[in-house]
Design a protein that fits this description.
Elements (H helix, E strand, L loop, with lengths): L19 H8 L5 H7 L1 H10 L2 H4 L12 H8 L5 H7 L1 H9 L3 H4 L12 H8 L5 H7 L1 H9 L3 H4 L12 H8 L5 H7 L1 H10 L2 H4 L12 H8 L5 H7 L1 H7 L3 H8 L11 H8 L5 H7 L1 H9 L3 H4 L13 E11 L2 E9 L6 H10 L4 E7 L4 H8 L17 E3 L2 H12 L4
Antiparallel strand pairs: 1-2, 1-3, 2-4
Length: 414
């Protein structure tokens, strides 16, 4: 599909003046906020600025439910024992177990069995291959074993959880999950090991990819549901990861949260550091751990996997295509980088924005790359992306405008 083309690729496009009624009509075309933002970002941004997103998006479905601790407590109150809670509300049960609040919200429940014989415990334990599964599925029996120092007797057959992950074991572990989010939440050690070794793409090829573009408003709204950074990071790892790459949001998102004092062992510091790709993200996302490592001269040891922010030579221009459309036309990204650094800048912007990148051109230029970028930004229509580094260089282009941009780059001597 090609819109009317004037012959002058630098012609400015007429801007739409959105009213509440037209915004309501535009929003009614979409079933989720993600689609609304991706396919009509101008309307989305206008609605966000006016504070009417909630009202015009009330018909939209949510991709998932983010349990707050208060919601978990209310959900648990519906059940008389943990067995019923686990069977009738498994997602809430798993969320409570992962956040280590299960005992707290289940304190009102009756204990189905208070005494166990050793043979009964052995028979029960034989149903499980690891202590983790035994503890999760049979918390009362596991607790009895732990309190009476019987774990070594009833769990002797169990497989020790593997910590020395190799490629084959990581592939096997990843095959259990349908999305990277599930993989990260359910098998964090394996996920972080694969992330550190650069193996995620290789072992997650079978997984479906659900991409969410996190606006500032969405992140702030989610963060407001949690009392601590730990709760937020465990319940919403994707939103949390995006937040720490946006320094301007950190104070606003975390300002209401309680500060928890943690006894940072070297092992805990190593595990915490693996969540981040750069030291700056580590400092913003977990300042207490970062400062503990800094004071003990451990940063070099625990940050060895992190990416160094190398300076750019600013001698190259890139064009990449996104998977988004604006006003019916594909969206592209222009930018200045370094020929020496290759795809690093492209990959970083793609990661920060959550927008996929298909490289069209990466060309070293003889003249000023910044002057060329300024010229290219006059093309097409600006979809008005915001809130991440590099957001202002996206443009919706016709085929003719893209062709003009590529030829301009190749012939640039300015």
């Amino acid at each position: 599909m090609v819109r009317n083309y004037t012959g002058d690729p630098l012609t400015e496009k007429k801007r739409i003046r959105w009213t509440t009624e037209t915004l309501q009509l535009e929003a009614s075309k979409f079933s989720s906020r993600k689609d609304f933002y991706a396919l009509s970002s101008a309307a989305y941004s206008a609605a966000s600025r006016r504070g009417i997103l909630d009202s015009i998006c009330s018909h939209m479905s949510s991709l998932h439910h983010a349990w707050t601790n208060e919601e978990l407590r209310l959900e648990a109150l519906k059940y008389q024992n943990k067995k019923l809670f686990r069977e009738c509300s498994p997602k809430a049960y798993d969320a409570a177990y992962s956040r280590q609040v299960l005992e707290e919200i289940c304190s009102h429940m009756e204990v189905l069995r208070r005494s166990w014989t050793l043979d009964e415990l052995k028979d029960l334990a034989l149903q499980y291959q690891t202590k983790r599964d035994f503890r999760r599925e049979q918390p009362a029996a596991y607790g009895y074993c732990e309190n009476n120092k019987l774990l070594s007797q009833v769990c002797g057959h169990m497989t020790r959880l593997i910590t020395d992950w190799n490629l084959d074991l990581l592939k096997e572990e990843a095959s259990k999950y349908k999305t990277r989010g599930d993989f990260q939440n359910s098998s964090n050690k394996a996920y972080n090991t694969a992330l550190r070794l650069g193996l995620l793409d290789e072992i997650c090829g079978h997984m479906s990819y659900v991409r969410t573009y996190w606006t500032d408003e969405m992140i702030i709204q989610l963060a407001s549901k949690y009392k601590t950074r730990k709760e937020f990071s465990q319940a919403e790892p994707a939103a949390y990861s995006t937040l720490i790459r946006r320094p301007h949001l950190v104070e606003q998102a975390f300002g209401h949260m309680d500060v928890l004092l943690t006894n940072w062992t070297i092992e805990r510091l190593q595990t915490e550091a693996l969540k981040y790709q750069t030291r700056a993200e580590f400092d913003r996302g977990s300042p207490s751990a970062y400062n503990s490592a800094l004071n003990r001269n451990l940063l070099d040891e625990i940050c060895g996997h992190m990416v160094s922010r190398m300076p750019s030579d600013n001698d190259a221009i890139y064009v990449w295509k996104t998977d988004l459309f604006f006003n019916g036309f594909p969206v592209y990204k222009f930018g200045v980088t370094s020929k020496r650094l290759g795809k690093m800048r492209i990959e970083q912007v793609s990661k920060d924005s959550g927008i996929s990148a298909e490289i069209i051109l990466l060309e070293q230029v003889s003249g000023s790359a910044y002057k060329l970028e300024k010229q290219l930004k006059k093309l097409g229509v600006n979809p008005k992306f915001t809130s991440f580094n590099g957001s202002t260089e996206f443009r919706a282009l016709t085929d003719e405008e893209l062709e003009y941009a590529v030829e301009t780059i190749k012939n640039w001597e300015g």
